[in-house]
From TrEMBL:
It comes from the Eukaryota. It is a multi-pass membrane protein. This is Ammonium transporter AmtB-like domain-containing protein. Keywords: Membrane, Transmembrane, Transmembrane helix. One of its GO terms (cellular component) is plasma membrane. The chain crosses the membrane at residues 30-52, 59-81, 121-141, 147-169, 235-252, 264-283, 295-313, 319-340, 352-374, 408-433. GO terms for molecular function: ammonium channel activity. InterPro entries: Ammonium/urea_transptr, Ammonium_transpt, NH4_transpt_AmtB-like_dom. GO terms for biological process: ammonium transmembrane transport. The keyword Manganese does not apply.
Amino acid sequence: MSSSSYDIPLPSSLLPSEASPEWNNKADNAWQLTAATLVGLQSVPGLVILYGSMVKRKWAVNSAFMALYAFACVLICWVSWAHRMAFGARLLPFVGAPNHALAEKFLLAKSTIGYFPMADFVFYQFAFAAITLVLLAGSLLGRMNFYAWMMFVPLWLTLSYTVGAFSIWDDDGFLQGKIIDYAGGFVIHLSSGVGGGHSCLSITGYNIEIVTFNLIHSVGPRISQDRQNFPPNNIIHVLGGAGFLWMGWTGFNGGAPFQVGEIASLAIYNTHLCTATSLLVWLTLDMIVYTKSSVIGAVQGMITGLVCITPGAGLVDPWAAVLMGALSGSIPWYTMMVLHKKSAFFQSVDDTLGVFHTHAVAGLLGGILSGVFAKPDLLRIMYQDTNYCPGLFYTFFKGEVDHGFRQIWYQLLGAGFIIVWNVVITSLICILISRIVDLRMKEEDLEVGDDAAHGEEAYALWGDGERMRIPLRLHIGPTIPSLCRKRFSIPLTRKEGE
């Protein structure tokens, strides 16, 4: 097609070509690839750094490696069969037929959602699936057998995540058009928090949390000394990993509309507004109750804000995002810092990084609040021909309160489905794996940590037995002999343990 076919001549760089067909919107294509990369960066290196730094030093390698392995494994499974189960031809009302997503004809055709190649959509959805499994891992750090984790990842992706994604997001899913889940509060976060303690919220939201509790029960708690004393090994790196997670959420929520438009801009704006509010509220509560400004607490408040806004990021006004941030910084704070310490049930559940509270509680909260504050105009712009009921708040002004309560009912129905499905499926997966390998590491290996699991340690401070040259500065005359005398008893070379 030549430029004369248009009313206004276009630059040659914008004209259709064999490499960029007429249906391909170059701006949407560029943004979708960028958004997918940002979501990927949340896992690698974001959560790899966060997990490796937030745990006890002896578990740094194992925790980071669980996240890295899950990211790689999910990609292979996703393109081999899982993508079509989540976004393919309907097999059952809640899942698609498994098929590969590797053919050039399929990947270079127009996406079913958006004006860009299907390869963009497959990669973007892979990044969502991967972070769901990585989030789930946060509940199991410090005791799960790595070989069991290697088996768990593909099984849970196939039997749990794809079902939630298809049911809520795919056009043929039985909950599609009913549940407001803008970017995965139910599909990603809820599932990670309930299943493993953190595997319930978005399938990752609702799904993630369910899996967490289920897995925690199956794998068992950490050893007693780790539960009593489990300090972060590098708080500065914790902040670095948290930064990747926060900034990466720009792609997480900004890419969900699958186009560069008003909804994407609003979603990004609301995401950061809610997150900052949640962090400050959590920090304020820590200072009031414990008289200390906790860095780890601030990171937890950041995460709950990100999770809470996800189901409605592009569908609520900024004032509602602030309110959601205030609630996500206070309600999960109460369940984690007060209720958890008083409840015998919570005390019996060893959720290593508190995923249940940061993802299950915050994810469920965000899902319900999205049903309350979803604005009719924004729903129409995002979904066009839609059957979604307006948020409960707006129905009071139109005399349609019954429609608002109907939407709340749908939100609770979606949460219930994700929770029940993940509890059942995760239990069956754990039973199956336990027949093959132990879900939990051996007790003697739990005492050692990384070296027992992988034969590697995060920090080899003394070279692990090799002969080391003593720094020359040790031979400089001491200014204060009483403080430096012991240094002269060290030989020029030594072996560790000598």
